[in-house]
């Protein structure tokens, strides 16, 4: 029931009365006239541009698409106008499809291009297909873009000239496919019976502006020629533009950034076991206004991924988080945080309004409590004793205490044992071994004296730890020779824990176990059907991702579990964030073709090729 005020009187109007229905109708009309909310315009226009682009492509490709009563007007138009308009409609449609994603992300350059292309598409629709509806849709979208131009202020994404090669390959393949369709959709106008090879040759010639072997009757020859030429020109122009535009490289740590981060870690590095991983040099960084806190990130597929907690003083975290969110807004990136602690998750959600989701648990061993004695450690104890009886020896040292030649051998061995072309790891990986600036890192190695046949001599396995404040270390890398005996990783972890006291280490962070709590609760007596089903799904996914194996490997050392969280904006962003995280961690690889890759030495970083590893990217 609604209430209207008339002077000093209040009148109750039942909702079913004509007056109430009329008020709702007026409100609905006003809402339509106002148009969509300004903040929703980019999404609306981006989706609509996808639809308009598909319509334009269909109008340019298929000869019987969208005939209207105004078709007779074409009889008085110049002979070349129809074919030219078909090519224009095809080109405008493809470009709108390419720009739709940028419009959804508020990109200024996409807005500028769309403001030009939409009227061009409208002219082509009217001249070639006489589609009044298509003209109205295009002009309405153009009017929305002009009216809400202040919503499109996002800066460009990081880019390189390799996108020109990707554009040439993808758009060239699409042009070839569309060209075959264009050549084949005029069966009544084709002279003779050309083969598939003749049609393909005609398309290839047409993309370069030359006549091919297929002949048509009437003006169809010009329609096909203009359309193929437009596809070839579009591929060439966009490729040349991407190749010669100024590069805007992704953010990287500068020497000054790294120095400032190391100063913050020196004071506050003991708070988060992932703090030292912020020193990866392929990350960007934003500092708080006071300079007392920082957030490190990488941009992948339009997702701005931060890893771990902010670095520095907790009191200054909000300032760094605000800078992070401002940077994401300026570029229209999707903000997300991978692997933050419970304290970090609370600060992120409080300051930004984002949502947190528990990913799993980090295994932390307190060295003072670690012992191989007891029934619970029997399996680990027996495995270590068996390997030691085979003659293996272990060495646990700070990186600065290892000589240059031996350090080079360790670095080469770790690279050769990686097992994959792609270096894996992001949120829990440093990406290098033996850097002079990382002298506090701990390297544990396993040796088999007398073994000289292997490429790396007696070296059989390597573990690499990074500092965790002044009294801790965090596992970063596990590599072993495939010909070595099983149990190398258990041997080196036990050796590292036993040598921790001499190194001044009181706590050691091991691997990250994805969804550990679900696996642990699901196997308990009395677990409900939903929990058992969820655990069964995780075990099934463990065939491809090390979910269950990481949990069981970590549990061998009887650690305490510290939960880790992912922070995100909305559930709609989760698929995109998941793909971006897997790309950042190296599980989904979109790399340069092999002939164009760098031929320098492969970096030594994080991998999962030999054993469970310290990473979060399986999310």
Strand content: 15-25%
Please bin the fraction of helical residues.
40-55%
Structural class: alpha+beta
Spatial gap, N to C terminus: 49 Å
Query: What's the tally of helices?
Result: 18
Q: Which overall shape is indicated by the principal axes computed on the Cα atoms? A: elongated
Mean pLDDT: 79
CA-atom Rg in angstroms:
31 Å
Number of strands: 16
Major β-sheet profile: 12 strands, mixed
Uncertain spans: 1-13, 66-80, 592-619
Characterization of the model:
α10 packs across α11. The protein has helices at 18-34, 41-61, 81-104, 108-129, 132-147, 162-184, 196-207, 220-244, 255-268, 317-331, 342-352, 378-389, 404-416, 488-503, 516-522, 529-541, 548-555, 574-585; strands at residues 2-6, 9-13, 190-191, 215-216, 284-287, 293-300, 303-307, 311-312, 334-340, 355-366, 393-398, 442-447, 459-468, 472-480, 507-514, 560-568. Strands 5, 6, 7, 8, 9, 10, 11, 12, 13, 14, 15 and 16 form a 12-stranded mixed beta sheet that branches. Strands 1-2 form a two-stranded antiparallel ribbon. Residues 1-13, 66-80 and 592-619 have low confidence and may be disordered. It has 619 residues and is of the alpha+beta class.
């Amino acid at each position: 029931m609604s209430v209207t005020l008339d002077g000093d009187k209040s009148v109750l109007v039942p909702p079913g009365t004509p007056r109430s229905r009329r008020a709702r109708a007026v409100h609905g009309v006003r809402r339509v006239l106002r148009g969509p909310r300004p903040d929703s315009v980019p999404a609306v226009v981006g989706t609509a541009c996808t639809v308009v682009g598909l319509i334009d492509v269909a109008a340019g490709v298929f000869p019987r698409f969208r005939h209207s009563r105004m078709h007779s007007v074409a009889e008085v138009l110049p002979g070349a106008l129809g074919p030219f308009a078909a090519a224009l409609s095809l080109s405008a449609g493809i470009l709108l499809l390419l720009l739709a994603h940028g419009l959804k992300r508020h990109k200024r350059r996409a807005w500028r291009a769309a403001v030009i292309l939409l009227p061009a598409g409208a002219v082509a629709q009217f001249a070639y297909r006489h589609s009044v509806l298509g003209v109205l849709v295009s002009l309405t979208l153009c009017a929305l873009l002009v009216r809400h131009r202040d919503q499109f202020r996002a800066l460009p994404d990081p880019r390189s000239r390799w996108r020109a090669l990707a554009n040439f390959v993808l758009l060239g393949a699409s042009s070839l496919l569309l060209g075959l369709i264009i050549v084949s959709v005029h069966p009544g106008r084709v002279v003779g019976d050309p083969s598939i090879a003749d049609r393909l040759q005609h398309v290839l010639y047409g993309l370069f502006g030359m006549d091919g072997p297929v002949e048509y009757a009437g003006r169809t020859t010009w329609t096909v020629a203009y359309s193929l030429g437009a596809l070839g020109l579009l591929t060439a122009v966009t490729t040349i533009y991407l190749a010669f535009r100024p590069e805007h490289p992704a953010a990287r740590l500068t020497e000054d950034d790294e120095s400032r981060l190391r100063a913050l870690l020196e004071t506050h590095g003991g708070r988060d076991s992932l703090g030292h991983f912020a020193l990866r040099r392929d990350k960007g960084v934003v500092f708080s206004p006071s300079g007392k806190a920082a957030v490190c990130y990488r941009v992948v597929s339009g997702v701005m991924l931060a890893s771990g907690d902010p670095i520095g003083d907790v009191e200054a975290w909000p300032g760094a988080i605000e800078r992070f969110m401002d940077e994401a807004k300026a570029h229209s990136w999707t903000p997300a945080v991978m692997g933050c602690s419970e304290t970090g998750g609370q600060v992120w959600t409080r300051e930004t309004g984002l949502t947190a989701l528990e990913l799993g648990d980090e295994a932390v061993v307190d060295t003072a409590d670690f012992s191989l004695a007891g029934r619970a450690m029997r399996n680990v104890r027996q495995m270590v004793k068996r390997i030691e009886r085979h003659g293996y020896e272990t060495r646990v040292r700070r990186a600065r205490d290892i000589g240059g030649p031996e350090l080079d051998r360790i670095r080469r061995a770790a690279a050769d044992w990686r097992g994959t072309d792609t270096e894996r790891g992001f949120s829990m990986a440093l990406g290098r071994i033996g850097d002079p600036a990382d002298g506090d890192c701990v390297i544990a190695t396993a040796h088999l004296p007398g073994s000289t046949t292997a490429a790396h001599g007696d070296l059989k396995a390597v573990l690499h730890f990074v500092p965790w404040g002044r009294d801790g270390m965090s596992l970063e890398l596990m590599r072993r020779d495939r010909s070595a005996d099983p149990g190398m990783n258990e041997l080196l972890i036990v050796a590292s824990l036993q040598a921790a006291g001499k190194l001044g280490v009181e706590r050691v962070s091991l691997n990250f176990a994805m969804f550990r709590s679900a696996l642990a609760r699901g196997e308990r007596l009395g677990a409900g059907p939903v929990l058992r089903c969820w655990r069964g799904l995780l075990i099934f996914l463990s065939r491809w991702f090390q979910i269950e194996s990481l949990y069981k490997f970590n549990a061998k050392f009887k650690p305490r579990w510290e939960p880790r969280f992912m922070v995100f904006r909305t559930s709609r962003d989760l698929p995109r964030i998941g793909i971006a995280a897997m790309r950042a961690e190296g599980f989904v690889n979109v790399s340069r073709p092999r002939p164009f890759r760098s031929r320098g030495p492969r970096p030594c970083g994080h991998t999962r090729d030999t054993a469970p590893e310290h990473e979060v990217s399986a999310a």
